[in-house]
Amino acid sequence: QRARGLIAKRWGSLFSDIDVLLTPTVPQTAARLEQETFDWEDGSQESVSEAYVRLCAPANVTGLPALTVPFGKDHQGLPVGVQIMGKAFDDAKVLQVGRAIEQPLSPI
């Protein structure tokens, strides 16, 4: 619990200069059905399940408000998401930014 508290404190200090942090939701678009790992350009390898939770872990560990919304498609037409993280207890700002991103992508 102490480590989690220290991590949350450090992440919280990041938001002293910013309102929200935008990151990719996952580092890679959809894996093939039978695919078990991603082979990265630096020669490393990561399981699909680990890759898919890696970028969302800070919000889960710190308890900071976070939201993921669609952000477009990659060159193969696969969906891409963006994660919005905010200051502690500033859920409204996270939702406001999420809506601003998502609204232009919604069909009319």
Spell out the helices and strands N to C.
HEEEHHEEH
Instruction: Note the main sheet.
Output: 3 strands, antiparallel
Q: Which value, in Å, is the CA radius of gyration?
A: 16 Å
Largest sheet strand order: 1-5-4
β-strand percent reads 25-35%
Contiguous runs where pLDDT drops below 50 for at least 5 residues: none
Oligomer: single chain
**Helical percent range?**
25-40%
Give the beta-strand count.
5
Mean pLDDT: 91
- Decide which structural class fits the backbone: alpha+beta
Shape: flat
The N- to C-terminal Cα distance equals: 47 Å
Description:
The chain contains four helices and five strands, in the order H-E-E-E-H-H-E-E-H. It has 108 residues and is an alpha+beta fold. The chain has one domain. Strands 1-5-4 form a three-stranded antiparallel β-sheet.
Topology:
Layout: H1 2-14, E1 20-24, E2 37-39, E3 45-47, H2 48-54, H3 57-62, E4 66-73, E5 79-86, H4 91-102
Antiparallel strand pairs: 1-5, 2-3, 4-5
Key terms:
three-stranded antiparallel beta sheet, 4 helices, flat, 5 strands, two-stranded antiparallel ribbon
